[in-house]
Protein backbone atom coordinates (compact mmCIF):
# COMPACT_ATOMS: atom_id res chain seq x y z
CA UNK A 1 0.00 0.00 0.00
CA UNK A 2 1.53 3.29 -1.11
CA UNK A 3 1.67 6.09 1.46
CA UNK A 4 0.35 9.46 0.24
CA UNK A 5 2.91 12.31 0.60
CA UNK A 6 2.14 15.15 3.03
CA UNK A 7 1.09 18.43 1.35
CA UNK A 8 2.61 21.78 2.36
CA UNK A 9 0.16 24.59 3.19
CA UNK A 10 1.07 26.64 0.11
CA UNK A 11 0.69 23.76 -2.35
CA UNK A 12 -2.60 23.72 -4.27
CA UNK A 13 -4.99 21.00 -3.30
CA UNK A 14 -4.81 17.99 -5.61
CA UNK A 15 -7.50 17.29 -8.16
CA UNK A 16 -10.34 15.02 -7.18
CA UNK A 17 -9.15 11.42 -7.29
CA UNK A 18 -10.46 9.21 -10.05
CA UNK A 19 -13.35 6.96 -9.18
CA UNK A 20 -12.21 3.54 -7.93
CA UNK A 21 -12.08 0.83 -10.54
CA UNK A 22 -15.08 -1.45 -10.72
CA UNK A 23 -14.63 -4.80 -8.96
CA UNK A 24 -13.19 -7.49 -11.20
CA UNK A 25 -15.88 -10.09 -11.79
CA UNK A 26 -13.42 -12.65 -13.15
CA UNK A 27 -9.67 -13.01 -13.03
CA UNK A 28 -7.02 -15.71 -13.24
CA UNK A 29 -3.92 -15.79 -11.07
CA UNK A 30 -1.10 -18.13 -12.02
CA UNK A 31 2.60 -18.60 -11.44
CA UNK A 32 5.64 -20.83 -11.28
CA UNK A 33 8.39 -21.18 -8.70
CA UNK A 34 11.54 -23.05 -7.85
CA UNK A 35 12.25 -23.86 -4.22
CA UNK A 36 15.41 -25.41 -2.81
CA UNK A 37 13.41 -27.69 -0.46
CA UNK A 38 9.65 -28.26 -0.67
CA UNK A 39 8.31 -28.56 2.88
CA UNK A 40 4.78 -29.27 4.08
CA UNK A 41 4.29 -27.97 7.62
CA UNK A 42 7.98 -28.32 8.39
CA UNK A 43 8.55 -31.77 6.82
CA UNK A 44 10.37 -32.07 3.51
CA UNK A 45 8.36 -33.49 0.61
CA UNK A 46 11.34 -33.44 -1.75
CA UNK A 47 13.99 -35.32 0.27
CA UNK A 48 15.78 -32.01 0.86
CA UNK A 49 16.25 -31.29 -2.85
CA UNK A 50 14.98 -28.45 -5.03
CA UNK A 51 11.80 -28.81 -7.08
CA UNK A 52 9.73 -26.83 -9.57
CA UNK A 53 6.11 -25.95 -8.85
CA UNK A 54 3.19 -24.24 -10.53
CA UNK A 55 -0.32 -23.06 -9.72
CA UNK A 56 -3.38 -21.48 -11.30
CA UNK A 57 -6.49 -19.98 -9.69
CA UNK A 58 -9.74 -18.79 -11.23
CA UNK A 59 -11.30 -15.96 -9.17
CA UNK A 60 -14.95 -14.90 -9.46
CA UNK A 61 -16.93 -11.90 -8.17
CA UNK A 62 -13.97 -9.79 -7.04
CA UNK A 63 -12.15 -12.85 -5.63
CA UNK A 64 -15.09 -13.89 -3.47
CA UNK A 65 -15.23 -17.41 -4.93
CA UNK A 66 -12.19 -19.30 -6.23
CA UNK A 67 -11.09 -22.61 -7.74
CA UNK A 68 -7.40 -23.44 -7.89
CA UNK A 69 -4.86 -26.11 -8.70
CA UNK A 70 -1.27 -26.76 -7.63
CA UNK A 71 1.39 -29.16 -8.90
CA UNK A 72 4.84 -29.93 -7.52
CA UNK A 73 7.56 -32.47 -8.04
CA UNK A 74 7.96 -34.60 -4.89
CA UNK A 75 10.19 -37.37 -3.53
CA UNK A 76 8.08 -39.45 -1.14
CA UNK A 77 8.18 -43.05 0.16
CA UNK A 78 5.31 -44.06 -2.14
CA UNK A 79 7.28 -42.80 -5.18
CA UNK A 80 4.48 -40.56 -6.42
CA UNK A 81 5.33 -38.80 -9.68
CA UNK A 82 4.02 -35.46 -8.34
CA UNK A 83 1.70 -33.76 -5.90
CA UNK A 84 -1.44 -32.44 -7.59
CA UNK A 85 -3.88 -30.47 -5.45
CA UNK A 86 -7.29 -29.01 -6.27
CA UNK A 87 -9.01 -26.46 -4.04
CA UNK A 88 -12.26 -24.52 -3.89
CA UNK A 89 -13.50 -21.88 -1.48
CA UNK A 90 -14.72 -18.38 -0.70
CA UNK A 91 -12.93 -15.25 0.58
CA UNK A 92 -15.48 -12.96 2.26
CA UNK A 93 -14.28 -9.51 3.38
CA UNK A 94 -15.42 -7.53 6.40
CA UNK A 95 -13.64 -4.21 6.82
CA UNK A 96 -9.91 -4.94 7.19
CA UNK A 97 -10.60 -8.67 7.64
CA UNK A 98 -10.36 -11.24 4.85
CA UNK A 99 -11.66 -14.75 5.50
CA UNK A 100 -10.81 -17.92 3.58
CA UNK A 101 -13.15 -20.91 3.90
CA UNK A 102 -12.48 -23.86 1.63
CA UNK A 103 -11.56 -27.43 0.80
CA UNK A 104 -8.40 -28.94 -0.69
CA UNK A 105 -7.98 -32.40 -2.20
CA UNK A 106 -4.32 -33.50 -2.11
CA UNK A 107 -3.38 -35.97 -4.85
CA UNK A 108 -0.28 -38.12 -5.46
CA UNK A 109 -0.54 -39.83 -8.87
CA UNK A 110 1.64 -42.77 -9.78
CA UNK A 111 2.32 -43.88 -6.20
CA UNK A 112 2.65 -47.45 -5.00
CA UNK A 113 2.27 -49.01 -1.56
CA UNK A 114 5.39 -48.65 0.59
CA UNK A 115 6.50 -51.80 2.47
CA UNK A 116 9.33 -52.69 4.85
CA UNK A 117 11.05 -55.85 3.58
CA UNK A 118 13.50 -55.89 6.51
CA UNK A 119 10.89 -56.52 9.22
CA UNK A 120 8.38 -59.13 8.00
CA UNK A 121 5.15 -59.57 9.94
CA UNK A 122 2.61 -62.38 10.16
CA UNK A 123 -0.58 -62.09 8.12
CA UNK A 124 -3.57 -64.31 8.92
CA UNK A 125 -5.97 -65.10 6.05
CA UNK A 126 -8.77 -67.67 5.57
CA UNK A 127 -6.25 -69.74 3.61
CA UNK A 128 -3.75 -69.69 6.48
CA UNK A 129 -1.03 -67.57 8.04
CA UNK A 130 2.06 -66.31 6.24
CA UNK A 131 4.89 -63.82 6.71
CA UNK A 132 5.39 -60.85 4.43
CA UNK A 133 6.77 -57.31 4.30
CA UNK A 134 5.19 -54.90 6.76
CA UNK A 135 2.72 -52.55 5.05
CA UNK A 136 3.70 -48.97 5.88
CA UNK A 137 1.39 -46.95 3.67
CA UNK A 138 -2.10 -47.19 2.18
CA UNK A 139 -2.63 -47.94 -1.48
CA UNK A 140 -3.61 -44.34 -2.01
CA UNK A 141 -2.29 -41.37 0.01
CA UNK A 142 -4.79 -38.87 -1.37
CA UNK A 143 -6.75 -37.00 1.28
CA UNK A 144 -9.13 -34.10 1.70
CA UNK A 145 -8.84 -31.15 4.06
CA UNK A 146 -11.18 -28.33 5.08
CA UNK A 147 -9.82 -25.02 6.29
CA UNK A 148 -10.85 -21.69 7.76
CA UNK A 149 -8.53 -18.70 8.14
CA UNK A 150 -8.68 -14.96 8.66
CA UNK A 151 -6.18 -12.17 8.05
CA UNK A 152 -6.10 -8.45 8.75
CA UNK A 153 -3.91 -5.87 7.00
CA UNK A 154 -3.08 -2.34 8.18
CA UNK A 155 -0.11 -0.01 7.62
CA UNK A 156 2.00 -2.65 5.89
CA UNK A 157 1.40 -5.26 8.60
CA UNK A 158 -0.65 -8.39 7.92
CA UNK A 159 -1.50 -10.87 10.66
CA UNK A 160 -3.49 -14.06 10.28
CA UNK A 161 -4.62 -17.30 11.90
CA UNK A 162 -6.07 -20.50 10.55
CA UNK A 163 -7.20 -24.06 11.26
CA UNK A 164 -6.97 -26.97 8.79
CA UNK A 165 -8.59 -30.37 9.41
CA UNK A 166 -8.39 -33.74 7.68
CA UNK A 167 -10.32 -36.81 8.84
CA UNK A 168 -8.02 -39.23 6.93
CA UNK A 169 -4.55 -37.69 6.73
CA UNK A 170 -2.51 -39.19 3.86
CA UNK A 171 -5.02 -42.04 3.63
CA UNK A 172 -3.71 -43.38 6.96
CA UNK A 173 -7.07 -43.21 8.71
CA UNK A 174 -5.64 -40.74 11.24
CA UNK A 175 -7.38 -37.43 11.97
CA UNK A 176 -5.11 -34.39 11.70
CA UNK A 177 -5.66 -30.74 12.64
CA UNK A 178 -3.18 -27.96 11.93
CA UNK A 179 -3.36 -24.60 13.75
CA UNK A 180 -1.22 -21.67 12.67
CA UNK A 181 -0.57 -17.98 13.08
CA UNK A 182 1.20 -15.80 10.53
CA UNK A 183 2.65 -12.30 10.38
CA UNK A 184 4.09 -10.26 7.51
CA UNK A 185 5.47 -6.75 7.42
CA UNK A 186 6.22 -4.84 4.22
CA UNK A 187 8.63 -1.92 4.48
CA UNK A 188 7.09 1.48 3.65
CA UNK A 189 8.16 3.08 0.37
CA UNK A 190 10.04 5.90 2.13
CA UNK A 191 12.53 3.40 3.57
CA UNK A 192 13.55 2.23 0.11
CA UNK A 193 15.11 5.57 -0.89
CA UNK A 194 13.60 5.46 -4.37
CA UNK A 195 14.37 1.79 -4.96
CA UNK A 196 11.70 -0.06 -6.88
CA UNK A 197 9.98 -3.10 -5.49
CA UNK A 198 9.09 -4.12 -1.94
CA UNK A 199 10.99 -5.74 0.91
CA UNK A 200 9.14 -7.80 3.49
CA UNK A 201 9.71 -10.01 6.53
CA UNK A 202 7.33 -12.77 7.55
CA UNK A 203 6.94 -15.75 9.83
CA UNK A 204 4.64 -18.58 10.85
CA UNK A 205 4.09 -20.63 14.00
CA UNK A 206 2.05 -23.81 13.71
CA UNK A 207 0.99 -26.85 15.70
CA UNK A 208 0.06 -30.09 13.93
CA UNK A 209 -2.11 -32.38 16.05
CA UNK A 210 -2.00 -35.91 14.67
CA UNK A 211 -4.10 -38.95 15.62
CA UNK A 212 -3.73 -42.74 15.32
CA UNK A 213 -3.51 -44.64 12.03
CA UNK A 214 -6.05 -47.26 11.01
CA UNK A 215 -5.82 -50.77 12.47
CA UNK A 216 -4.83 -52.21 9.08
CA UNK A 217 -1.75 -49.96 9.25
CA UNK A 218 -0.79 -50.92 12.79
CA UNK A 219 -2.86 -48.41 14.81
CA UNK A 220 0.24 -46.25 15.21
CA UNK A 221 -0.04 -43.03 17.22
CA UNK A 222 1.60 -40.33 15.12
CA UNK A 223 3.63 -37.64 16.87
CA UNK A 224 2.05 -34.19 17.16
CA UNK A 225 4.55 -31.36 16.79
CA UNK A 226 5.24 -27.65 16.53
CA UNK A 227 6.76 -26.05 13.44
CA UNK A 228 7.87 -22.53 12.63
CA UNK A 229 9.52 -20.50 9.90
CA UNK A 230 10.88 -16.99 9.60
CA UNK A 231 12.28 -15.21 6.59
CA UNK A 232 12.47 -12.19 4.34
CA UNK A 233 12.00 -11.46 0.68
CA UNK A 234 11.97 -8.94 -2.11
CA UNK A 235 9.24 -8.46 -4.70
CA UNK A 236 9.64 -6.51 -7.93
CA UNK A 237 6.67 -6.53 -10.30
CA UNK A 238 6.04 -10.24 -10.93
CA UNK A 239 9.27 -11.58 -9.39
CA UNK A 240 9.69 -12.60 -5.74
CA UNK A 241 12.86 -13.89 -4.07
CA UNK A 242 12.41 -15.39 -0.60
CA UNK A 243 14.94 -16.80 1.93
CA UNK A 244 13.50 -18.65 4.93
CA UNK A 245 14.56 -20.64 8.00
CA UNK A 246 12.29 -23.64 8.70
CA UNK A 247 12.32 -25.98 11.70
CA UNK A 248 10.24 -28.33 13.91
CA UNK A 249 10.51 -29.75 17.42
CA UNK A 250 10.40 -33.34 16.15
CA UNK A 251 13.28 -35.63 17.04
CA UNK A 252 14.84 -37.59 14.19
CA UNK A 253 13.07 -40.77 15.38
CA UNK A 254 9.70 -39.04 15.60
CA UNK A 255 10.35 -37.55 12.18
CA UNK A 256 10.84 -41.07 10.80
CA UNK A 257 7.62 -42.17 12.47
CA UNK A 258 5.63 -39.35 10.84
CA UNK A 259 7.29 -39.29 7.43
CA UNK A 260 8.28 -42.90 6.68
CA UNK A 261 11.54 -41.61 5.18
CA UNK A 262 13.06 -44.72 3.50
CA UNK A 263 16.54 -43.72 4.71
CA UNK A 264 15.36 -44.43 8.25
CA UNK A 265 15.40 -48.17 7.64
CA UNK A 266 19.16 -48.03 7.09
CA UNK A 267 20.22 -45.64 9.86
CA UNK A 268 18.44 -46.81 12.99
CA UNK A 269 15.01 -45.33 12.38
CA UNK A 270 16.00 -41.69 12.02
CA UNK A 271 15.08 -39.07 9.44
CA UNK A 272 16.42 -35.62 8.59
CA UNK A 273 13.26 -34.55 6.76
CA UNK A 274 12.09 -32.50 9.77
CA UNK A 275 15.43 -30.87 10.62
CA UNK A 276 16.23 -27.17 10.47
CA UNK A 277 16.80 -25.90 6.95
CA UNK A 278 17.33 -22.70 5.02
CA UNK A 279 15.02 -22.57 2.02
CA UNK A 280 15.44 -20.26 -0.97
CA UNK A 281 12.54 -19.71 -3.37
CA UNK A 282 12.24 -17.77 -6.61
CA UNK A 283 8.74 -17.26 -8.01
CA UNK A 284 6.95 -15.52 -10.86
CA UNK A 285 3.30 -14.57 -10.28
CA UNK A 286 0.84 -13.09 -12.76
CA UNK A 287 -2.82 -12.22 -13.13
CA UNK A 288 -4.81 -12.11 -16.33
CA UNK A 289 -6.04 -8.59 -15.55
CA UNK A 290 -2.47 -7.44 -14.92
CA UNK A 291 -1.28 -8.80 -18.25
CA UNK A 292 -4.19 -7.10 -20.03
CA UNK A 293 -3.32 -3.76 -18.42
CA UNK A 294 0.33 -4.16 -19.39
CA UNK A 295 -0.61 -4.83 -23.01
CA UNK A 296 -2.95 -1.82 -23.04
CA UNK A 297 -0.18 0.58 -22.01
User: What is the CATH class designation?
Assistant: Mainly Beta
> What radius of gyration results from the CA coordinates?
23 Å
The major pleated sheet works out as: 12 strands, antiparallel, barrel
Enter the CATH topology name.
Porin
CATH architecture: Beta Barrel
Structural class per helix/strand content? mainly beta
Order of helices and strands: EEEEEEEEEEEEEEEEHEH
If strands are numbered along the chain, what order do they take across the biggest sheet? 1-4-5-6-8-11-12-13-14-15-16-17
Q: pLDDT under 50 segments (min length 5)?
A: 1-20
Q: What does the average pLDDT come to?
A: 86
First-to-last CA distance: 22 Å
Please report the total strand number as a whole number: 17
State the fourth-level CATH superfamily. Answer: monomeric porin ompg
What fraction strand? over 45%
Query: Total domains, how many?
Result: 1
DSSP helix count?
2
Backbone shape: globular
Helix content class: under 10%
Explain how this protein is built.
The chain has a twelve-stranded antiparallel barrel with strand order 1-4-5-6-8-11-12-13-14-15-16-17. Mean pLDDT is 86; it is low at 1-20. It starts with 25 loop residues before the first strand and ends with a helix. It has helices at 252-259, 288-296; strands spanning 26-35, 39-40, 43-44, 51-60, 65-72, 83-90, 93-94, 97-107, 115-125, 128-135, 143-154, 157-169, 174-186, 198-210, 225-236, 239-248, 277-287. The longest helix is centred in the last third of the chain and has 9 residues, at 288-296. The protein is mainly beta. The protein has one domain (26-296): monomeric porin ompg (Porin, Beta Barrel), CATH 2.40.160.40. Strand 11 and strand 12 (157-169) form a beta hairpin. The protein is globular and about 70 Å long.
